[in-house]
Automatic annotation (TrEMBL):
Gene name of the encoded protein: XRN2
Function summary: Possesses 5'->3' exoribonuclease activity. May promote termination of transcription by RNA polymerase II.
Similarity comment: family membership: Belongs to the 5'-3' exonuclease family. XRN2/RAT1 subfamily.
Protein name, UniProt field: 5'-3' exoribonuclease
Region listing for Disordered, in residue ranges: 113-132, 458-491, 699-724
Record keywords, A-Z: Coiled coil, Exonuclease, Hydrolase, Metal-binding, mRNA processing, Nuclease, Nucleus, rRNA processing, Transcription, Transcription regulation, Transcription termination, Zinc, Zinc-finger
Annotated CCHC-type domain residues: 263-276
GO MF annotation: an example: RNA binding
Basic and acidic residues compositional bias, start-end: 121-132, 470-481
Chief location bin: nucleus
Amino acid sequence: MGVPAFFRWLSRKYSSIIVHCVEERSKECNGVRIPVDTSKPNPNEVEFDNLYLDMNGIIHPCTHPEDKPAPKNEDEMMVAIFEYIDRLFNIVRPRRVLYMAIDGVAPRAKMNQQRSRRFRASKEGAELTEEKQRMREEIIQRGGYLPPEEIKERFDSNCITPGTEFMDNLAHCLRYYVADRLSNDPGWRNITVFLSDASVPGEGEHKIMDFIRRQRAQPNHDPNTHHCLCGADADLIMLGLATHEPNFTIIREEFKPNKPRPCALCGQMGHEIKDCQGTAREKQGEHDQFADTMPVAEQEFIFIRLCVLREYLERELTMASLPFPFDFERSVDDWVFMCFFVGNDFLPHLPSLEIREGAIDRLVGIYKDVVHKTGGYLTQNGFVNLERVEMIMHAVGVAEDNIFKKRKEDDVKHQAPAYLTTGQFAPQALGGRDRPQPVHNARHQAFDMRMQSRDHNNRVSLDSWPSDSSDSRGVKRKAEDSDSEPEPEDNVRLWEEGWKQRYYKTKFDVDVTDEDFKRKVVKSYVEGLCWVLRYYYQGCASWKWYFPFHYAPFASDFKDIVGMFSEFEKGTKPFKPLEQLMGVFPAASGNFLPTTWRNLMTSPDSSIIDFYPDDFAIDLNGKKYAWQGVALLPFVDERRLRAALDDVYPDLTSEEGVCSVGSPPRLSPQGTEFPAELCHGIQGTLNLDDDPILPDKIPSKVLKPSDWERSGQGPWRPQLGFNPNRQQAHLNQSAFRSGKRQTLGEQTPCCFSANAEVIR
């Protein structure tokens, strides 16, 4: 999922990191489609060596798209996934490696977020079904027209979870797809293809990171290797920086807001279900023969050039007159670490740090002020220096009160009802005694008014984007919206005195004077910071650890944290696939589980029935939209869950028993030249940090080619990527281009190459 608003902030601040992808389209000749020859040079003017696909970011939009009709069945879903991979391969055209990683069983810290998502998805699906039925009855009573209601089972996206029959079928289909492309596509002829399916524990992007770290550790590693990672999660940017690879690019879909979506009731474009009038659809052709052939605009892709981002960061983070030698790579690690405070998949962000309010810039400024006193960097090879982190938190804590007050002021400005000019053109009350001042320079005054309006638009575009001046000279009038929902009541009121007392009482139901409880929350958060950094740089430090609260502490509560963390428990193991399903699924998705296991979710006599509430509260926590809120679900007690499952394990069939233990650690990469050490992520070996791959030596940024000759070629100039004349992505004020938004059989994680046998 990543970090909300991080990419928007990053693309606004460092606009040159983004360029549009050039995609060569297939052609038709006499009705025959001629595929693109991907063995030819890349039209993007850069050649990539390795392409990594975080497959879950492909599976979800292909199986349940938001801006076009959904596939009718599972076969169409698989074809859509194949076509999506073909498009990416056509754009990137890797020359050495294609690595496809599907999310396996995740660490417990991630499972809590997965649980929240799946419960929300189930709740929203049920609410949508009820809303559709209510609207259908109303429209029919008014005499409106609606197409006949199709009797089909709703696709439950929760099946995209390790351990389900759908994920097993997907793995088999991907093996078929890879075998076909290796045999028939010339662009695939000389590359090695790795497939890590859902039977292998670990998140897809972290399987990829482990593969890259092990590549770097090889004695024959080529530091000029150009990596391209596909995924829309913002944390992929931080993971890419954490590799310290000089040539690293991320490809993702270009987000276009306000894209038309079909009405969930009548299927027509241009309105939402709440505005549906039940009018008949216009015919496409005389006999409506073109109804199913209407073109759908294809999603475009953009490149995020981390080599350019590294140059930006080097300029911003370089500090002179330090009491220790400046190391840019270490400062990048510190920058990645500081981004954790504004949110990630494992910890809630600190209340005083919002990306939209410039929290990362604030942290960088504090970091550069404090680093002279710390005597060194905050992190090293995935380990945190808590004494230095406490100094950063102290500086943030001092400013917390002002941050909350400024946030309220910005909200008031944003919600003000009218645009009022000032100066000589300011409106005057009729009959007023004050005589307006004469206009001395109308051109200058008009320019000031235009700049005033533009500055306001810039602030609004990032939801209270911070400005250097507190003067609000005008506010744009907002369109009257009678259907707008009232703002949710904020009982904490962080901008008023006593905010800390109200926060702890409202969110934790404890008194602010309970120092032991506050220290317990801070200790868990500190452990989380150490866990996340280790996860990014070395591997999973503990499969059992998780942050046991829904909310974060304040920065001012980080006191005496040096002794709060020692080490994580060694030798922990992930959940088994069926156990994970029991930990993340709501009762509505119990059809993916064996019968006796499913009954534990619904039976009143179940010892763990409290893990599966029929309804739950969503705390907006000062936000406006439900998706931004906090789902107040009970945390799963691992010991209670395992005790309950011990009673139903004997009921599993032989096939279900295979599903419950996951995939055997087996690999048969016949014909490949890749050493076995690089294949941990596909043979089922757990990615633990007991034996980490540490960056003992940072390679040169770009080395001279072995066949480079000075004669006739001029001086050596490293080429870090794209042609400098490549068209950049032009972004509007919102930082985006405008637009009109099981039962498992035996699993064999596999490695394919051009001359390898397909593993059955």
